[in-house]
Queue: 3 jobs
Job 1
Amino acid sequence: MTSRITGTSAVEIADSVRGLLERARLAPGEPLPPVRALADELGVNRNTVVAAYRQLAAAGLIVTRGRAGTRVADRSPVAQEGFSAPSSLHDVGTGNPDPRLIPDPSIALAAAAGRPVLYGEPVIDEGLESWAGDWMRADVGDRPLRLTVTSGAVDAVERLLAQALARDDAVALEDPCFLASIQTVRLGGYRAVPVPVDAEGMTVDGLRAALAQGVRAVVCTPRAQNPTGASVSAERAAQLRAVLAEYPYVLVVEDDHFSLLSQRPYHSLVGPDHRRWALVRSVSKFLGPDMCLALVASDPHTAERLALRLSPGTTWVSHLLQRIVGHLVTDDGARSRIRAAARHYTDRNASFVRRLARHGITATLGDGLNIWVRLPVDAAAVSPHLRRRGWLVRTGDEFVLADGAAASHVRLTVHGLSDADADRLAADLSDACDEALGAARAPTRVG
């Protein structure tokens, strides 16, 4: 049986594969012939096929897995954060902050006005840089650092990986994982290596195994890990630093997305002698997603390469936006509102965990906007029963990298519910689990 691929040069072979993809004659995930087999079939040198596959991999059209073979890249959509499509269901899977608790940006609009900023001027607003430098250095310590401003945390992580990696390079990601990180790694053409997460963050054995597989970057969440809410403990951070000490040139990206809202201390995975690192802190959780800005503290080498990644496209983040953010994070009233929001998220989540306990459902109170709930049955079986009761949830399978991980979990965003709605959701979740268990135990009729 022939492969349908034609050509006698690398360019012709690559164009043939592109044509098959465009005509849908090759499907996502479908295997391509081994190099030797295709070379024999086409009567060409193996290096010609290798060069063709290399072109296709660089374009993100195929993925090479060594002995596991070469396959068409999977372009299936990845779940996204935020509200679902409009429906009559009550969406408790959004992962959004409460808009009522976000400081009013209008108080900073007048302060943002000023002379126009022109090409060639510093890319970071002086006032924001001064505040951010103090904020970051309080946690980074004496390590040399430089600051960069990006259009949000996802933009920062994407550009940090792009300046350090090539397609098919391996990246260690938490499992379960933040949806945007999964999307970033997939679109970048990198290979995700899952590292299990427990109540104290990335596991030591999981990170050690990922590093042994040759990962060139590690993306982790030191606090309020999404979706689990886990925060890295001081003991775990020391253990992870000891493992990473043997790999000083592996890029470690810490996405401290909850920062000013976090109720847990920040413990870094980056040791004093680690050479490639970046701490990313966005403002979207406490100032709102529309304030699309993140601050990056990194080692000077990474900062220089990050600046090169920024220069071809978005040379700078709007200085008007930077001034608004700078005013809000230094305003006493806005900071008081941020502290009140932090208490609100913790209190409402803790209250809902107690409600679940009364129904025999255990959930560990972590940090962050969400609650990670383990159910007595697969979440995919529970979700339809919740839909019939008017609820839309996020099931754990949307966040996983390894097969079967977190299948019995749901992520709930409940901080905006009234007491009555919270009572109803807890009861409905319990009833939905009972119905799903009953259906799973029911005998299957034959004939």
Job 2
Amino acid sequence: MKNFSTVGPRLARTRAWTGLAAALALGSITLLAASAHAAPAACSFRADAPDQHKVVKGDTLWDIAGRFLDQPWCWPTVWGMNREEIANPHWIYPGQIIWFDRAAGRLRLGQPLAVSTDDGSGVVSQRLQPQARVLGVGQDAISSIPAHVIEPFLTQPLIIENDELTGAPRIVATPDNHVFIGKDDKAYVRGTLNGGPTFQAFRPGKPLKDPQTGQVIAYEAFYLGTLSLQAEAPPGSDVHTFIVQNAKEEMGKGDQLRPLPPMPMQNFVPHAPAQPVAARVLAIYGGVSHAGQNQVVSINRGQLDGLDIGAVLQLYHTGRTVNDETAPKSWLGLRTQQVKLPDEKVGNLFIFRVFKHVSYGLIMQVSAPVEVGDYAKSPE
């Protein structure tokens, strides 16, 4: 990995940037606070990093970070961001400019600012200047990773942990004894409603076993659809009436309900976990044996292990154990030595939904198929 250097042909740019920073510091324009120290060696800028990038619709924080950095998860480091800013990065919008401050080894945010100049020839030109970072929340703010890829996973499918199934309301009857019901059909539900007017219907699915302990730590439930409460149970009854709002799969008697969870914040900055994490891939969504770019996997670590949304882990294949056929033979003429090959990095995992003991992650920058049992570790 090549570290950033300001010698040689870049010296002129360094002086120019130093002068610009000094001039702006004396003016009314405020730039992002930047540390006087360069980024850690692990967070080096790319050798071909551009001087600037204009943000366009469709960009993601991950994509932009990858233009400047060898490791996109180093984004907070080169911005000097604190934990609050990492969790709420709604401040980059299409049309703004990301500037590479080579003198400080930092990225800065600007916005196109038309400044008319006349060189005396009658030709008026315009230039861009860095401006203050504007904090705010808006729908146009760019997302961390492709929103359309993870959107279905933000509220479903469901991870059911511990005893969350206990006492969940369940469908006990359907109109005219239909085996299955769909959109706009009624469903009669029995159980205590501890939530709002909208519920998810689900069917318990396969258990998720920890690859290390073999114990079941959660269940991945099949998401069936959503239902809205039409009428609560009348006096003397414990049966509620629901209407199916939408049905992804057919639902029927025995299927269970739970309140629709709030949409979790999805626009977190890619960052390394706050504490070391060593996880294993539990399952690949869809029941397949291998996963590639932009596919979703679950891992056996969650909130209680220090993970949060936006954390980035590195994925590794476990090194195989092989016979060393080059080792000297024993007195029996056998070669019995075995060696373990190094673990091989195959990609990055962006964590976008976190439960207590389990998390969903989106595979990024993969170089080889990811398998159940692969390691997911804090970036080195």
Job 3
Amino acid sequence: MARDARVELDWAGGLNSFRLGWGELARLQEACDAGPFVVLNRLQAGMWRVEDISSVIRFGLIGGGLDPAKAMKLTRDYVEARPPMETLLLAEAILSAACFGVSDEMLGKAKAADQGSVSTTSRTESSGSPPSTEPEPS
């Protein structure tokens, strides 16, 4: 995964690069007659149209660097010739990455992971008061 919302996913017999850049999102919008968030919402809510799934995957392949004719062939063979539910999650993943970025792109996560172990003890734990979870003496 890269900072440009590109995702590498195992699909159609190999590792494929998918990316919906600005141009691909505009073409998706035109093909689906809806904006990217509307299409994403339809995919997630189960209100999708078959064109939502196939268009996201096809334009994602093109944006990922695949020749448009090859992208169309893969889409016909592995999306349109199969039940839609087989590629629904793939389409969601591609469009989510385009709209929100990918999880490893979140700034600050790497910095937080490199800081080593951080104590979660509060200052009151070193006080003379007994911890509140200990039972009272009988």
